[in-house]
Structure prediction request, 363 residues.
Amino acid sequence: MQIKYNQFKALAAISKASLLAIVKNPGSVFFSLVFPLVFVWIFGSFGSNSFSKINISFSKTSDTSNVVYTILNNLPQIKIRTYNNDSLRKADLEAGRIAAVLNISTNDSGSKHKYLINITSTNATSSELAQLKPILENIAIKINPEINNTVQIKENVYAIRAYKQIDFILPGQIGFSVLFSTLFGIAFTFYNLREQLVLKRFYASPVKKLNILIGVGLSRLFFQLLNIIVLILVGKFWLGFTLINGFTTFIEMILVSILMLMVLMGVGLIFSSVVKTDATISLLINLFALPQMLLSGTFFPITVFPKWMQVLCNIFPLTHFNTVMRKISFEGLGLLSVWQNIGVICLWGIFVYFLVYKIFKWE
Prediction:
């Protein structure tokens, strides 16, 4: 008697085996579940009620005891930043990190305007100022709905070098390119050289081991530097990217990029040494690079996050790389002026190459 083949059981068996294969693949789990969850968590951590708050500050002579200040301090779309140093406040104003400096005073001369708000701003934050003015104008209605001219606003907007969108975006894109290209390039290159026993043959040759690593690393370094140079030149001559000190700024950006490239090449060497299959390399790279891509000020400033998350952001080397590149290119700061950020990158380098020394494998 011929037994009829059960197609349903066959379908169920194939489906079960396929599902198990997917679940056992760490890459598929990461990109289908963990990756979206990380995005949801990070973008959900932005400041409430606004993608980006309007940053303002108050002058030392401003009256912070009146109702106008109280209302501003409680508005969710306003973030008040305090300074102990007037020069730092001015530097942040001209760099576009705060939209305006306000001076609130109470008018006791019997005028119909009980409060006077003097706004000092620059053309670098004209869009933020356009959002701030209606907010200030509506404060009068909140104080006294029957009298809408309780508050008088005066503006003092002076012209400086405009902080364009490309001045924020380009350094972040350079960091993004350096991060992923270097990690993927170095990790897969050394993994394949090891699997094909090329490194083993090199190791048995009279060539010094250090020269082997340096030779492969220099080729990757040269290739990545060409990409960085192209990005900077296109940004400068096509998109108006600011190189405040011209060629000097260009050289400083290249030097910082070389330092970051060296650190990331070490990370790539570590990944190539600890994995068993090439499929795991992509997973490790994304686990290392994804948080930095989202939390290091690559696409948006880290100030949109809560304070505790900003502490986490400042651990990553890419955060300090992006900060240094922006301060050098737009603000004209020298390398010595950003030594703290460069120091963090160097500390990462020391830690990374200590691990390379301990775990790097030739076969």
In short: The chain has 13 helices and five strands. The first strand starts at residue 54 and ends at 58. The longest helix spans residues 165-195. Residues 165-359 form one domain.
